[in-house]
C-alpha cells in the first residue's frame, strides 16, 4: 500500500503538471485547427463553409502566449494554417516601416 504524498511532495509535482497541462492545451488547439482545415477538402459546400467558420473562430481563440507552440504542432500536422505571433508580427511590422 502506498502512503499518501505530503504537501511538500505534492508541490514538487506542480511544475511538471503545469508543463503537461500546457502541452496538452497547445496540442489540442492544433488538432482542432487541423480538423477544421480538413473540412475544406470535402466536396460539400456547406461543410466547407462550416469548416471556414470554425477555423476562423479557433484562430481568434488561441491564447497569444501559446501561439508559437501551436504553430509548431501545426507544422508537424502539415496543415496550411499558421497563427500570427505577437513578437513575430511586431518584428515584421517594424522592418517594413524602417525601409528607405
Characterization of the model:
The chain is mostly helical and 100 residues long. The chain contains four helices and no strands. The protein has helices at 7-38, 45-61, 67-76, 86-97. Helix 1 packs antiparallel against helix 2 (45-61) and helix 1 (7-38) crosses helix 3. The protein is elongated and about 60 Å long. Residues 90-100 have low confidence and may be disordered.
* Rg from Cα: 19 Å
Number of H/I helices: 4
Give the helix proportion (percent range).
over 70%
Low-confidence stretches: 90-100
The major pleated sheet works out as: none
Query: What is the average per-residue confidence, as pLDDT, rounded to a whole number?
Result: 79
Structural class: mainly alpha
Amino acid at each position: 500500500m502506498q502512503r499518501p504524498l505530503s504537501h511538500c511532495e505534492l508541490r514538487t509535482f506542480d511544475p511538471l503538471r503545469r508543463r503537461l497541462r500546457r502541452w496538452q492545451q497547445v496540442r489540442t488547439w492544433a488538432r482542432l485547427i487541423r480538423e477544421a482545415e480538413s473540412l475544406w477538402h470535402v466536396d460539400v459546400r456547406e461543410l466547407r463553409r462550416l469548416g471556414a467558420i470554425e477555423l476562423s473562430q479557433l484562430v481568434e481563440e488561441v491564447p497569444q502566449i501559446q501561439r508559437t507552440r501551436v504553430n509548431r504542432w501545426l507544422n508537424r500536422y502539415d496543415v496550411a494554417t499558421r497563427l500570427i505571433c505577437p513578437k513575430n508580427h511586431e518584428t515584421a511590422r517594424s522592418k517594413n516601416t524602417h525601409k528607405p
